[in-house]
Amino acid sequence: MTPAPGEADRGIPPRMAGRTALITGSTGIAEATARLFAAQGARLFIVSRNGEHCRDLVDALTTTGAEAAWHAADLEDEGATEAAVAAAADRFGRLDALFNVAGGSGRRYGDGPVHEMSLDGWDRTMSLNARTHITMNRSVLRRMLDQMPDADGSRGAILNMSSILAFSPVPSLFPTHAYAASKGTIATLTQSMAAYYVRDGIRVNAVAPALTNSRMSVRAAADASTQALAAHRQPLSRGFLPPEDVADAALFLLSRESRSITGQVLLVDGGWSVTQG
After folding, report:
1. Which position among 111, 166, 254, 263 has the lowest Cβ density within 10 Å, counted as fewest Cβ atoms?
2. Is the model's pTM score more than 0.90?
3. Rounded distance, CA 138 to CA 131, Å?
4. Segment 40-68, tens digit of pLDDT
5. What is the per-residue DSSP string for 73-117?
6. For residue 9, what pLDDT band results from cuts at 50, 70 and 90?
7. Taking all residues of the chain, what is their mean pLDDT, rounded to a whole number?
8. In terms of C-beta distances under 8 Å and separation of at least 24 residues, what long-range contacts does 86-95 make, across chains too?
9. 109 catalytic, yes or no?
């Protein structure tokens, strides 16, 4: 999203002007959000396991004039996550926004229905999604708690990544119980964190997207049954959501426009939750 025509002429500043945003992940929703935030004036720090993807994204952002940097880190590793956040703080001084996007499917580790799931599949899927949120949230919160409130009294805003499958399962196509549980954990974590840190001036929300075009969804997007499900359950997007739709929600929830909103899990679902199966 770019500023609406005439905004600059009216002296309306970009919606993330002067704010530093840390985004985990470097493709799909993370990439779309980074590009949108850059267009809205944010300073960006990208953290992902894949250093090549990070570098390519930051190179693309800086060619547009954005101020951006990156750090490769395995977010399941406590020390690596702390080092990445320290690098962001050293580069930009202040961390105003965190968008936890990184995560993924645990099918390759053995995720599935509980009676078939391997315990390693459970552990690896929970680590890939929930543990990475814990390590990053904890490191960023420690920085935010130590920084001075801004003019709105805010020390920062955090946005976590849940999923529609945590609230509305589709057992025939997505029998991945550890994945759903990990995303449900993130939703509950978000609300608990919001309640605890609200008086410190730190907001915590989450988005729960429906089926979205990304690297993670390539297999699902190639399946005719999943395509039909998306077309039926997501009529507003006529199928899989473009990642830019989730990025638009992230922009709102991490900008000052939502300064009175915390503890919410926003379904960005193309109509899934109000469409019968």
Report:
1. 263
2. yes
3. 11
4. 999 999 999 999 999 999 999 999 999 99
5. --TTSHHHHHHHHHHHHHHHS---EEEE------GGGT-SSTTT-
6. low
7. 93
8. 86/139, 87/45, 88/20, 88/22, 88/45, 88/47, 89/143, 91/45, 92/20, 92/43, 92/45, 93/20, 94/20, 94/147, 95/20, 95/22, 95/140, 95/143, 95/144, 95/147, 95/156
9. no
Q: Tokens at residue 99, please?
A: 């968008």
The per-residue pLDDT for 1 is 41
CB atoms within 10 A of CB 4: 9
Residue pair 76/135 in contact by the 8 Å Cβ criterion? yes
Instruction: Indicate whether 124 pLDDT > 70.
Output: yes
- In angstroms, rounded to a whole number, what is the distance separating the alpha carbons of residues 239 and 274? 15
The pLDDT tens digits of the residues spanning 81-113 come to 999 999 999 999 999 999 999 999 999 999 999
Q: Which of 109, 179, 196, 197 is catalytic?
A: 179
Residue 50 structure tokens: 């894949």
Q: What is the pLDDT of residues 172-182, one digit of tens each?
A: 999 999 999 99
